[in-house]
């Protein structure tokens, strides 16, 4: 059944007169065909357009249809009711037909998928069977070829053995004949010569035995007397030399200590007024800061899981950044800003304890990077020193922490001084192992054979003097490069200013115990390699005097038979490098 609805009136005067559709339900009256135009098209002679929308006349109001009879009214109501019933009707057959189509499509698709899977499985199975068949065929053919090769090889080997045995038997027979003839002749000659030799040997033996007995007795008596005399003279000379050496060393030590004590006492007021400290005071201060970091900062951080997690997360961000350093100003600036702005001093400030712990970890990472990278490549110390210098200038309390960690990794060499017999608080060392650790020595890596018979891992031995020298030299090279960088906005910490270089040389040259160590010669060479020419420009003639003193220590010696670096092979090689470096500095200054 089709229904038609009358269109709305068009505002256009042309379309307004188009033919009205007839209602099949009597909603509008039938009108004469003459009321409409004969053609739905627009007459070109009567067409026109308005100048604006306001000129378009409003459509006339459609008059209501007047229902004339009751039959027409009833027909209209039935039609409206039929339309409503049609729009609201729900046909179960149509719903069943739609659902049936869906189920049929789903079943067909499921069957198609199952068939495709079955086809794929059969194809895979066929391929696998064909592959196994080909593999078995190849294996069988390979076994047949191998068996044939083995048979041929065995046959060849048998033929070679047979020929070899024949040649050996022939050679053996031939040589047996030759040897028998030679032996017969040799036996005749040997028997004659042996008889003559025995007679001569018997006579010579008697004469030599008599002469030997006489010489042995005389030599034995003379040697005993000479050995006894030499032993007495050597023992007496060694005793006197040892006593004299000990006496001289004791006198020299007492005199040096007395002079040092008197000098320090006399200069005590001046040092206090000038803000200067002694080497032992610097060591105790660095040691106390290190122990305070360990007990008051790191132990509480590691004991609380949340603090340890936050500390570890930030610490792990520092290591790759320090490892990515190159001698590029932009990269150095970006890495420095990242460590300062994102890790150490983020917008959300860390608690004081976590801040101090991160500074300690930052110092340790920098020093470990110096141990590995600078030892292998000297130029890598320059970007590392620049990053460290900037962080020392921008981070509060970082200079004290960094210097304390520096003393921990290098012993007392950054000061420099000899490690005392007691800790900073006056407590004696428990054993030599503790004092060795404080001196900066590290244990070597453990190996599988470092386990005793009970299955307990033995403590690893400490590193050798050569490993210790190389590691300390790499760290101190970074420290000397830091001293070389001029300050930017404000004075640096006293331990990181250029005058510290003069203090370092003055202290190490004034301590004979330090000078005899090969480490001293290696560090003097490192300092001269980094700061030698720069210090000559700063201090001029005074630095030349310092170089003269160093040169005398490596060529003539600072005492009787004593040189800078000692007498070991490592000290001798380091002393030679110092000599060459001093000569280079003086030559370049001319």
UniProtKB/TrEMBL annotation:
Keywords: mRNA transport, Nuclear pore complex, Nucleus, Protein transport, Translocation, Transport. GO terms for molecular function: inositol hexakisphosphate binding; phospholipid binding; translation initiation factor binding. InterPro entries: GLE1, GLE1-like_sf. Gene3D superfamilies: GLE1-like. It is found in: Nucleus, Nuclear pore complex. The keyword Protein transport applies. One of its GO terms (cellular component) is nuclear pore cytoplasmic filaments. This is mRNA export factor GLE1. Residues 1-15 have a biased composition (Low complexity). The keyword Transport applies. Belongs to the GLE1 family. One of its GO terms (biological process) is protein transport. It comes from Mycena venus.
């Amino acid at each position: 059944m089709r229904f038609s609805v009358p269109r709305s009136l068009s505002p256009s005067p042309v379309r307004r007169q188009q033919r009205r559709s007839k209602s099949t339900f009597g909603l509008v009256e039938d009108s004469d065909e003459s009321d409409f135009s004969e053609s739905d098209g627009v007459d070109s002679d009567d067409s026109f357009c308005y100048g604006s929308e306001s000129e378009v006349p409003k459509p006339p109001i459609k008059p209501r249809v007047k229902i004339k009879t009751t039959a027409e009214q009833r027909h209209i109501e039935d039609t409206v009711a039929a339309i409503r019933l049609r729009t609201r009707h729900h046909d179960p057959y149509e719903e069943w037909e739609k659902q049936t189509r869906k189920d049929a499509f789903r079943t067909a698709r499921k069957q198609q998928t199952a068939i495709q899977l079955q086809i794929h499985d059969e194809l895979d199975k066929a391929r696998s069977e064909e592959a196994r068949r080909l593999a078995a065929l190849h294996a069988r053919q390979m076994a047949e070829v191998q068996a044939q090769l083995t048979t041929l090889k065995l046959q060849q080997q048998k033929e070679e053995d047979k020929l070899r045995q024949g040649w050996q038997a022939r050679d053996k027979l031939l040589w047996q004949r030759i040897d028998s003839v030679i032996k017969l002749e040799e036996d005749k000659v040997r028997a004659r010569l042996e008889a003559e030799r025995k007679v001569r040997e018997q006579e010579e033996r008697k004469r030599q035995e008599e002469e030997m007995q006489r010489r042995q007795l005389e030599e034995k008596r003379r040697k005993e007397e000479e050995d006894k005399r030499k032993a007495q003279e050597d023992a007496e000379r060694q005793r006197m030399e040892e006593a004299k050496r000990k006496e001289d060393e004791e006198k020299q030590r007492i005199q040096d200590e007395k002079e040092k004590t008197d000098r320090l006492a006399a200069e005590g007021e001046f040092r206090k007024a000038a803000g200067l400290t002694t080497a032992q005071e610097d060591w105790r201060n660095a040691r106390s800061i290190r122990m305070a970091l360990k007990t008051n900062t790191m132990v509480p951080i590691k004991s609380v899981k949340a603090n340890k997690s936050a500390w570890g997360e930030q610490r792990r961000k520092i290591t790759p950044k320090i490892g990515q350093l190159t001698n590029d100003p932009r990269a150095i600036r970006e890495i420095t800003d990242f460590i300062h702005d994102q890790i150490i001093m983020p917008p959300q400030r860390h608690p004081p304890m976590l801040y101090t712990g991160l500074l300690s970890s930052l110092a340790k990472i920098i020093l470990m990077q110096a141990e590995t990278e600078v030892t292998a490549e000297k130029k890598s110390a320059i970007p590392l020193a620049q990053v460290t210098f900037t962080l020392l200038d921008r981070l509060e309390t970082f200079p004290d922490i960094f210097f304390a960690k520096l003393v921990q990794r290098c012993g007392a060499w950054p000061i420099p001084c000899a490690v005392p017999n007691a800790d900073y608080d006056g407590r004696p060392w428990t054993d030599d192992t503790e004092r060795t650790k404080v001196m900066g020595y590290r244990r070597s890596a453990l190996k599988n054979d470092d386990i005793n018979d009970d299955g307990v891992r033995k403590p690893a031995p400490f590193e050798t003097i050569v490993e210790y020298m190389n590691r300390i030299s790499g760290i101190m090279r970074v420290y000397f490069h830091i001293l070389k960088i001029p300050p930017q906005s404000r004075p640096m910490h006293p331990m990181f200013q250029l005058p510290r270089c003069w203090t370092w040389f003055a202290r190490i040259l004034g301590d004979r115990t330090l000078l005899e160590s090969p480490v001293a010669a290696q560090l003097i060479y490192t300092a001269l390699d980094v700061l030698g020419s720069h210090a000559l420009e700063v201090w001029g003639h005074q630095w030349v005097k310092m170089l003269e003193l160093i040169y005398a220590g490596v060529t003539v010696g600072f005492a009787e038979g004593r040189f800078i670096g000692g007498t070991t092979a490592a000290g001798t090689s380091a002393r030679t490098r110092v000599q060459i470096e001093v000569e280079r500095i003086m030559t370049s200054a001319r």
